Structures are given as C-alpha cells and as structure tokens.
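Example record used in the benchmark description.
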Amino acid sequence: MICEFNALGIPGLSKITELYALVGNFVNLEYPLPSGQTVKFLDNNSMYLGSQVECELRKGRCYGLLACVDFLLVCEYGENGADPEIVVYKRR
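Model output (structure tokens):
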C-alpha cells in the first residue's frame, strides 16, 4: 500500500514510509458534495491503514491517507479535519 500511495505522484505529498492502524470512527470525515450535502464514506467500525502528512505546498493543510483491501483514499484538510477535499479515490 505504501508503494501505491507513493506511485500516485501527488504534488506536495512527501514520500510515505509508514502507515498506521486507524479506526474508521476516528478518520471518517464529512465531505461536501456539489449539491451542498455532506457525506461520510467510511465505516465507523472498520479498521484502515493510514497516515497524516503535512502538505508541502499549502501551509496549514494536511493530507490524510487511508487504505483497505478495496480502495486508496487521499484527502486534503485543514486543522482538525476542517474543509476536507478528496484528492484521490482509487479502487484496488
């Protein structure tokens, strides 16, 4: 999974060397849809592998990386998960 994240070539995302076990409830952000609604995509009770990495191009923003057997997710957000945006969602 680490190799898959590094192969995405996302600008401002430093090389990933470790992923950590994370509970869905802890990382399940609400993403805005074009309709104005917000939606959570993760299962609060599932475990994911992931990491948080400071964005090198946008001060005050971080990348959140999550993976499981089915997908890779990279999002960008501000302090405490504010204003999250999906950068990449890729089925595995």
